[in-house]
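Box 3.1 A note on notation
Throughout this textbook, protein chains are presented in two layers. The first layer is the amino acid sequence; the second is a token string describing backbone geometry. Keep the layers aligned when reading.
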Amino acid sequence: MTSESLSKEEKSRESQPADGGQEAKVSPPVKEKPASLHPAPPRPRPQPISPPSEPKQYRAIGLVRGRYTPMPTQFTQGTLTASDGTTIDAVLLGRIISLLRKHMNLEEEHLWVVYPRTREKEQDLHTQIVGVWDPETLVKNQVIDKTKIADTAHFEDGYFSIRGEVVYSSQEKEEVVVKLHQAPRKKEERPKSFKLKLKGVLTGKVLNHFWEFDVQRQGNDLVIQSGTAIAALASKFKQKNNFSKKKGPGGFKKPKGSPRPPGTDELQSSSDFSGTVPRKPISKPSRSRKQNTPE
């Protein structure tokens, strides 16, 4: 056999599949997905007071360093003795109850996250404890990760963030009352609201405006350090006027083209109108005397 015939046979053997069957199929190369141009933002690290989620978010939250002492008969009710010696009535809410029982030493002082309230009768400060900020203890008990703790150097003891509607302001008494609305937990519940008394003086257009305050606790008082008016809110007086213009007496809409009762214009223009139509006095009938006729 010549060299040419040998080369042809070798080429034919190379072209045939190794197992003598069908030709092996080569899968196309897998394309790698390009890296996302917009990676997901990192999750915010836990901190005692988070920034507001929206411009007009109602809230009242703050920090108090001290020691919590429960009542002998009720663990969720007690007193919070602050580091400056101030005694504040307090209650425990939510998950903080099990956290205190399992991981916290109540004989030591802690930085408590609280909701402030002003009681109506006593007009003093009352707190609802909703959390505790003690990274060393929580990391030691493996409650949170040390690498996920935010820098809290700017959160000091006694700092409060108050955001709500100013409904009262007195420069003489140096008092400001802020109204805050609470979203209902269930759909069938009605929204609730409460008022919080602050110490300070505001100038300019104050009432019916949404304000943001940085407040510092001094004893049992919440003293305003700085305040910013965020937006104006619709007053109830304007809402009532708009309601009365659209609807007639009794809150019902007037049918179009219905005539007014007679005498309405005169009665409404009178200043001494009492709401009833005056009646004219009815004259008594006079008796006619019999005339004496001669017999």
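The longest helix spans residues 3-15. The chain is about 15% helix and 30% strand.
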